[in-house]
Design goal:
The protein has a single domain (about 1-155), classed as outer membrane lipoprotein receptor (LolB), chain A (Clam). A hairpin with a 3-residue loop joins strand 4 and strand 5. It is α+β, with helices and mostly antiparallel strands and about 160 residues long. It has helices at about 1-15, 80-85, 95-100; strands at about 20-30, 35-45, 50-55, 60-65, 70, 75, 110-115, 115-125, 130-135, 135-140, 145-155. The longest helix has 13 residues, at about 1-15.
Length: about 160
């Protein structure tokens, strides 16, 4: 019985209110077979967790919280489960968090430093990714799986 209590507590605490150290307002574009969004969003993060709040016409429509699970308005799931359902099952578990924070993906494979950031090109039988990060924008495109993330500063 106490193990059941522990499991339920962990599940509910995964989506609980967090204290975030950084908040940024960005233009966020997401295109995937299951997700489509293009408007303003807030990205809040601390060292271990991140929350993305998406708005359309000033109304919050979706909140995605990422820590050891990924929680949406529909509930929580593992990172690999989220990738399988919403992105691509071949993606590494940390890819969504790394994209929103502008960190290297795939353990930095093919990372090339640019004047204002870095770029990665990843090609395999499962993905064809172009990923660019600079001080004002993040761009991720997987041609094989028709997935795009664009995160830009508001000017």
């Amino acid at each position: 019985m106490k193990y059941l209590f522990l499991v339920v507590t962990l599940l509910f605490s995964a989506c609980s209110v967090k204290n975030y150290e950084h908040t940024q307002t960005k233009i966020i574009i997401i295109k995937s077979p299951k997700l489509k969004f293009a408007d303003i969003g807030y990205i809040r993060n601390s060292d271990k967790s991140i929350e993305i709040e998406l708005f359309i016409a000033g109304k919050a429509i979706e909140k995605i919280a990422i820590n050891h699970l990924i929680c949406t308005n529909d509930g929580c799931m593992s990172k690999q489960g989220f990738n399988s359902d919403y992105l691509n099952s071949s993606y590494p578990d940390e890819i969504l968090q790394n994209i929103f924070l502008g960190r290297e993906i795939y353990a930095g494979v093919n990372r090339v430093k640019t004047e204002d950031g870095f770029e990665q090109k990843i090609l395999s039988q499962y993905v064809e990714i172009t990923y660019r990060v600079d001080s004002h924008a993040i761009y991720f495109k997987d041609r094989k799986n028709r997935i795009i993330f664009k995160i830009k500063d508001i000017k």
